[in-house]
Specification:
single chain; alpha/beta; TIM Barrel; 8-stranded parallel barrel; 8 strands; 15% strand
């Protein structure tokens, strides 16, 4: 472990698995998102707002949910010059959200750590997007670095800089846990219950496998928000996580 500041608290309470399931509100508007949250009720406590909803009224909706006692993961994947990232993170910190993502580039991560100083905001570094495989990295010019190696390298940099957690595919969670140690969050998207469609994700696992691999939080969107009964779908995933 480096001399960089590490997270001061246990990354997650293991008593209530609802706190470890982040429901991705990947929908085009606030009214649809509000309807989903209402239908889920107390079965869900933690919601992700990404680009699609954020730029369609999602920032104000995030404040609304926070006011109702919900937790918010703002998935913006910030990446810009250092000063811009630092000031942007400082503004997000004032909203009261729980998690914010940045891309795992060293300058960006250092700026994000500076911007969230003195707040309860936790910064998550995105290593390699779960929609990417080795061929995508080759196309982007990363050859001959495979996805697994790049994830490991960026996780180590995030640890040394003092980032609160890592976003990675659940297939990489066990290896990342060995790199970042026991006190950081590992948030895994690309989760699909057994038998569901993988969609555009290329590195997916089931909720139970993700927990067993060392993830602290799982992000699940389509299997819940597109379900005929989002509350029942949420409860089923929480149950699978608990059994793991």
């Amino acid at each position: 472990m480096s001399n960089a500041e590490s997270p001061s608290a246990n990354p997650v309470s293991k008593g209530d698995m609802r706190e470890r399931l982040i429901i991705g509100l990947d929908v085009p508007g606030v009214e649809e998102a509000r309807s989903i949250v209402t239908r889920i009720g107390d079965a869900g406590t933690f919601y992700k707002i990404g680009y699609q909803l954020a730029y369609a009224g999602g920032f104000e909706f995030a404040r609304e949910l926070i006011g109702q006692g919900k937790k918010i993961f703002l998935d913006l994947k910030l990446h810009d010059i250092g000063n811009t990232v630092e000031e942007g993170v400082r503004s997000v910190a004032r909203m009261g959200v729980t998690f914010l993502t940045v891309h795992a580039y060293p300058q960006t991560m250092r700026a994000a750590v500076a911007g969230k100083a003195g707040s309860d905001l936790r910064i998550l570094a995105v290593t390699v997007l779960t929609s990417y495989d080795d061929n995508d990295l080759i196309e982007a010019g990363y050859a001959p670095v495979p996805a697994a190696e790049l994830v490991s390298r960026r996780a180590g940099q995030a640890r040394d800089i003092g980032i609160d957690g890592i976003v990675c595919a659940a297939t990489e969670a066990r290896r990342v846990r060995g790199i970042v140690g026991p006190d950081r969050f590992i948030v895994t998207p690309g989760i699909r219950p057994a038998g569901s469609d993988a969609g555009d994700q290329k590195r997916v696992v089931t909720p139970g496998d993700a927990i067993r691999n060392g993830a602290t939080h799982l992000v699940v969107a389509r299997p819940i928000v597109k379900a005929a009964d989002p509350r029942a779908a949420t409860q089923a995933i929480v149950r699978e996580m608990s059994e793991a």
